[in-house]
Design goal:
The structure is a homodimer of 337-residue chains.
Chain A: H1 5-12, H2 16-24, H3 31-44, H4 50-57, E1 62-66, H5 73-88, E2 92-96, E3 120-124, H6 130-139, E4 143-146, E5 154-157, H7 160-173, E6 179-183, H8 186-191, H9 193-208, E7 218-220, H10 225-236, E8 245-248, H11 251-263, E9 273-278, H12 283-286, E10 289-292, H13 295-310, E11 320-321, E12 325-327
Parallel strand pairs in A: 1-2, 1-3, 3-4, 4-5, 5-11, 6-7, 6-8, 8-9, 9-10
Antiparallel strand pairs in A: 10-12
Helix pairs in contact in A: 1-2, 1-3, 2-3, 5-13, 7-9, 10-11
The first copy, chain A, binds a DNA duplex (16 and 16 nucleotides) through residues 4-6, 14-18, 20-21, 24, 27-30, 33, 48-49, 51-58, 116.
DNA sequence: CTGTTAGCGCTTTCAT
DNA sequence: ATGAAAGCGCTAACAG
């Protein structure tokens, strides 16, 4: 069967305590002993039992990641970043509760999922209800948010309001006046503040430029390409005046819109300028102007901050606003005057 | 601090053994006692310690998922499927070793990652070296492969050779004779058999149709859109005769190729027919003809098979070939004669 | 139906 | 520098 610390101890003719110390690189072990223990452990193929360690220390060396999806561009990449940092620091990654944003109120995120199971929690691109926050607070566990802010938590993400402002300003600078916004769906906006922040950034920028915010120019997708295309259809079908530019809350929606435009023979950027947020892998290929952000780095830094907190490093906790950058490509052009 | 089974036992005035039984729904507990225990547990907010349970039972109720990426279409969706099934059966999901396919030989997948830590392993879209297989065998742990076969393991995936045949046959049926293949890169083909299987399916089909396999018509991408576009460029730059159709080993590469074609003014399908494999979320929007498969379902079934094995269900282990389907869309057309 | 008693495999005082 | 021993919180015989 499985070899335990005791097997190693016997074979190395020391106590289990010494084996434990030697293997973990603690001081107060003579070099000779340490070497012998290491050799025996290797020879026997000893692997410590995380359950036993966890039980004895109260810490699991495991971090939970709470996220609604993995198949969205930002989410998957942020997860990669978290994974990189965790792995490099010897932590495991427990994936919690995919399955989308809640329908109604039946998300089952409870203390149970978390308590005694993980040392810290990364929350990716989702809000937490008041009661969820309370449950979490009870556990005393460090939490960091990635992709968007959560009240009372450290967060690593861009300033979404500012990013939306930059995107919108770019369109305005190009002379556009009739600008539409492809925003998140109801579910997105209930579950996560970021879609709303982007919409607000857009609205505020339009207002301060003295431009009209037509309600029919604000259309909901759900941050996917498919819904982006569908929502684009609704914009294109609008009677009366058409927008000359669209700010999309995500590149995935922007790409969906571009596909739909193409299907209808609407030329980009001649007939319509499009700007998104993300810099999705496909965006450079599609020539999509966008606000680029680096989710892998977000994930890495979030995990780093979290682990510092888990390990009790002083000054560990800090809010981080990550940089973003406008990438001008072929999907936006000056409005012909 | 944290409430333990003993706290519950005391408060309910029973032994810890009874609490344990009551909470796990075991028989031989009087309804009255069970109710009281349940009530006390709820009142105290008791949550069992997975470490303690794991140590006592030797099982962790956790399944590992080994995968090189999460940001590829198939991978992310398969992961969703695995997660769904695991969650519905009360298992946790430990994400192992992202970070791409190995460069050289330095992937660190060892017994250590796995032993005493998980009850079973899902291997997603990657091969395992002989030594890795041996390490795994030592653990006696059930393993199932998703997305492609692994020697000696149960697998859930499509028949990739047949899928490639179907795609290629579709092109041939449309009258194409000069057909190129956008295949996987060196790293993909070393680490995973699927790219090779698809290339072989293509080659075999071409041969049995009596068509010429020109070496310069076989170009390597790496299963991403970006590399698909780059590889497409190499095809388009070929001197002399051009292919009239391309079979792409994945939709992501096919989409990359379509973007590149568009950039160069190459019309699809008028100048070039394109078929992929996957039915990526963007494919329907792009009008890409493809061989559709359902990775979420693959993941679900793989997890189901794995858990049956973990739980010792008889006849649990079975190989599964999943269905696929040719979806004819606008990227393929009859070759004008 | 319920309680008692050993462990599970490790860490961690406290001695020595 | 090393060992002995007491837990960590739970489950699983075994008694009763």
């Amino acid at each position: 069967m499985s070899v335990s610390i005791e097997d190693v101890a016997k074979r190395a003719e020391v106590s289990t305590a010494t084996v434990s110390r030697a293997l973990r690189g603690l001081p107060k072990v003579s070099p000779a002993t340490r070497e012998r223990v290491l050799a025996v452990a290797a020879e026997l193929g000893y692997v410590p039992s995380p359950s036993a360690t966890g039980l004895a220390t109260g810490r699991t060396k495991t971090v939970g990641v709470l996220m609604p999806f993995v198949d969205r561009w930002y989410f998957g990449h942020a997860l990669e970043g978290v994974d990189q940092e965790l792995r490099s620091r010897g932590y495991n990654l427990l994936l919690l509760s995919l399955g989308g944003y809640l329908h109604g109120n039946k998300r089952r995120f409870t203390e149970q999922m978390v308590r005694k199971q993980i040392d810290g929690l990364v929350v990716l691109c989702m809000g937490l209800s008041q009661s969820e926050l309370e449950e979490l607070a009870k556990t005393q566990m460090p939490v960091v948010a990635v992709g968007g802010p959560i009240e009372g938590c450290v967060g690593v993400h861009i300033d979404d309001f500012a990013a939306a402002t930059a995107a919108t300003t770019h369109l305005i600078d190009l002379g556009h006046r009739k600008i539409a916004h492809l925003r998140g769906g109801v579910k997105d906006e209930i579950n996560f503040v970021v879609p709303g922040l982007r919409a607000e950034g857009f609205a505020a920028t339009m207002r301060s430029a003295g431009l009209e915010l037509r309600p029919e120019f604000s259309v909901a997708g759900d941050f996917t390409a498919a819904q982006g295309a569908a929502a684009a259809g609704r914009i294109f079908d609008l009677p009366g005046e058409k927008p000359t530019a669209v700010f999309c809350g995500s590149d995935e929606m922007a790409l969906g819109l571009m596909f739909e435009a193409r299907r209808r023979g609407i030329r980009i950027p001649e007939d319509l300028s499009v700007v998104g947020i993300d810099n999705h892998d496909f965006s450079v290929l599609a020539g999509l102007t966008t606000i680029a952000q680096d989710p892998v780095e977000h994930g890495r830094q979030a995990a780093a901050i979290l682990l510092d907190a888990v390990e009790g490093k002083p000054e560990a906790i800090t809010q981080k606003y990550m940089p973003f950058q406008l990438l001008k490509r072929e999907s936006t052009a000056r409005l012909p005057s």
